[in-house]
Amino acid sequence: MLKLWAFVVVYIVANSHQWGLLTTKQQQNLTQMVTQSARINETASLDPIVAASTSLSNVAIPVPLAGYQPLTLPVKGAIAIDQTTGTVLFEQTADTQLPIASLTKLVTALVILSNHHLDDVVTIPTLPTYQAADARMGLLPGDHFSISQLVSALLIPSANDAADALAIYHSGSLDAFSQAQNAKLKLWGVPTTHLANASGLSDDNNYSTARDLSKIANLALINPTIRGVVSQSNLTIANQEGHVYQLTTTNQLLSFKDFHGIKTGYTLAAGQCYIGLVAINGHEVITVVLGAQDRFGNTKTMTDWIKNNWQWL
């Protein structure tokens, strides 16, 4: 309740002429007063794997600039949030349930990392049959990889066989792992998301919303392993049998200096999907686009719009 009240205060003041009547110091004081209490309560309610020691002494809040211009993107769902305060900077049909393709793998990574050590060894089981176009490493049954290596393969080239290997290792079967995923989602407070597999390769009963995905992305980025992995464009790994694998990211926006993650997804039903992490004026912003035909271009349009229509005080 405190969190809700705090952000209501900020929203009302920041979006009215009263904000402009405050001095810069008064704006900063109000920002710190309401966002600190909200963030403290939010962090206290999270699963232990996402607890973080964030300094709240100099919290800045995003405020729309005068002459704020609307934006419409050619996507089925989208949202952008300031990672520090959770302030919504842009949204468009953000609560519509949509298939999410390989964005599913962020939840898979969180479930695995909350239950296993990075150096735990996975023996590759017999895996499903994949189509030629399905992203995969070409894992061989009986080979051995560390959790760290498979999570990297899961998130950098979006390998579906790595997702399934981790799921079977954790739960014994793909169906049982889906139950573990949904139990975590319930714990995290994202009830409008439901996952039916570890990879996102199948869209049946596997869906989320842009708003839920911004929350899931925030949880993922609090995890230092995931944050580090999704920022890498390339990585070479070798399993215990000595087989070498080159991992290349599917995230084209990593070639831009302001982008630092996090995950792509695509199926025919889901369209192009993307969660991004971008630095805008020194502040991290999480972006989500679903059902796009140009996910990277749409994300750039959104982030450029934020730069021109928001400031941090």
Task: Describe the 3D structure.
This protein has 313 residues and is of the alpha+beta class. The protein folds into two domains: 2-66, no CATH class; 98-312, Beta-lactamase (3-Layer(aba) Sandwich). It contains ten helices and 13 strands. The strands form five sheets. A five-stranded antiparallel beta sheet has the order 3-2-12-11-10, sandwiched between helices. The chain is globular and about 60 Å long.
CATH H level, superfamily name of the largest domain: DD-peptidase/beta-lactamase superfamily
Helix content percent band: 25-40%
Helix count from the secondary structure assignment: 10
Broad structural category: alpha+beta
Radius of gyration: 20 Å
The total beta strand count reads 13
The count of domains is: 2
Distance between the termini: 24 Å
Q: Give the amount of beta strand, in percent.
A: 15-25%
The third-level CATH topology of the largest domain is Beta-lactamase
Q: Given this structure, which CATH class of the largest domain is correct?
A: Alpha Beta
Average residue-wise pLDDT: 87
